[in-house]
Amino acid sequence: MSEPPSEDRRRPVVTLPLAVAGLCLALPFGAMLWVDSYARTTPEFIGIPFFYWYQMLWVPISTALTAVAYVLVRRAERARKGGARR
C-alpha cells in the first residue's frame, strides 16, 4: 500500500484565490492575443486611433491585475504556512 504524503511532499492545492490570481495574469494575454477585437481605427481618442490607445490602456490594467495576483498569492502562501504550523 502507498503511504500518505509526508509534510515535505504535499501536493500543491489550487484554491479559489490562486485560480483568481491565474485569471488576473491570463486576462491581459487573452485581450492582446484577440487581435480582431481591436484591429480598427475608430473610435479615436484625442486623435489617437483605437488600435493604439486600446493597447496602451492595457498597460495600467495589466499592472493592476498583476498587483492583485501578487497579493492573492502572498496571502495564500501565508495562510498555508500558518496552517502548517498548527
TrEMBL record:
Membrane spanning residue stretches: 12-31, 51-73
Domain of life of the native organism: Bacteria
InterPro entries: DUF3311
Keyword set, alphabetical order: Membrane, Transmembrane, Transmembrane helix
Keyword Membrane: yes
Protein name: Membrane protein
Organism: Streptomyces caatingaensis
Lineage: Bacteria, Bacillati, Actinomycetota, Actinomycetes, Kitasatosporales
